């Protein structure tokens, strides 16, 4: 399932690397180079996930994350990507859903994205049905 992803970073190198990782995972991302451009992108299109750098010119990722959470309460999942290891709690308090420390690998990116992927209604039904079948089987077995 391809997601709608907004990649926000001011470094061309980081944008290229993250874009290549996303492509390998089957996703394509729109790009914004600072928090202001990220908010403008969200005003024009909805996204499932925003991959947000913290240190950027004009508007940093923390401020952008706070604004996104105020304006779009049920909005996109925000995964912060930063080299600032000790910012985890600050980012989560600002409204981020997850935190990746640079440099990160494709495995960490995949796990974070999968953790926050929207579940289509059909898959929810199948999952619930499977759980109910397992409960029914367990219940029948315990009666024997």
Task: Kindly summarize this structure in a few lines.
This protein has about 140 residues and is an alpha/beta fold. The chain has helices at about 10-25, 35-45, 60-70, 90-95, 105-115, 120-140, and strands at about 5-10, 30, 50-55, 75-80, 100.
Describe the structure in your own words:
The protein is of the alpha/beta class and 144 residues long. The protein has a single domain, classed as Rossmann fold (3-Layer(aba) Sandwich). Helices cover 51% and strands 17% of the residues. It has six helices and five strands; from the N terminus they run E-H-E-H-E-H-E-H-E-H-H. A five-stranded parallel sheet has the order 2-1-3-4-5, sandwiched between helices. Strand 1, helix 1 and strand 2 form a beta-alpha-beta unit. The protein is globular and about 30 Å long. The C terminus is likely disordered.
Note the overall shape: globular
Strand content: 15-25%
Give the helix/strand class: alpha/beta
Largest sheet geometry: 5 strands, parallel
Q: How many distinct helices? A: 6
Sheet with the most strands: spatial strand order: 2-1-3-4-5
Total beta-strand segments: 5
- The percent range for helix content is 40-55%
Output the CATH topology.
Rossmann fold
Quaternary class = single chain
